[in-house]
Design goal:
Helix content is about 25%, strand content about 30%. The protein is an alpha+beta fold. Helix 1 packs parallel to helix 4 (about 155-169).
């Protein structure tokens, strides 16, 4: 069931479906697929995590976002960065190899969109994700969240990275 939340894509409004994840709440659980085709849940992750959510790795802004977080991973130490999309795991693996991305973990929600619904980033009419970034601390609390209002725009990388550094301090 769609709610009143929405984002725009090139100025056109698109409704979001799912929960509205807020800073301070416990991170919603999920079931995603890794590039090795194994299931990954929130419980399979630990420590401070950045969840970088993108519509598709094969678009310019998503490509740039994932590359930016991959570069930042080295300076974050014990923070794990996950890029989550509905791209097939095979496509994610191909993209990472071609882009030289080796520090970000890509996870796919291609099966049923449960992550998109649990985290409130499902663009209902297109069945892809809105652009968003969430930081989750070692206690599974959301310490930072940004749902980017316009899908074609970049997230605030500096704010997300600062939140991850603060959560890991």
């Amino acid at each position: 069931m769609a709610d009143s939340r929405q984002v725009t894509m090139k100025g056109n409004p698109l409704p979001l479906e799912g929960k509205d994840v807020q800073v301070g709440q416990t991170a919603p659980d999920f079931s995603l697929t890794g590039i090795d085709m194994k299931t990954v849940t929130l419980g399979d992750t630990s420590g401070v995590r950045i969840f970088s959510i993108v519509p598709s790795l094969d678009t310019p802004v998503c490509d740039a976002q994932t590359r930016r977080f991959n570069e930042a991973a080295a300076e974050l130490g014990n923070v794990t960065i996950y890029t989550v999309s509905r791209d097939l795991p095979f496509a994610q693996k191909r993209w990472c190899g071609a882009a030289g991305v080796d520090k970000v973990v890509t996870l796919s929600d291609y099966k049923d969109g449960n992550f998109g619904l649990a985290w409130g980033v499902m663009i209902e009419p297109l069945k892809i994700f809105a652009r968003a970034v969430y930081v989750v601390d070692a206690d599974n609390k959301v310490t930072y969240g940004q749902l980017v209002p316009e899908v074609a725009e970049h997230p605030d990388y500096d704010a997300a990275l600062a939140a991850a550094k603060a959560a890991s301090a």
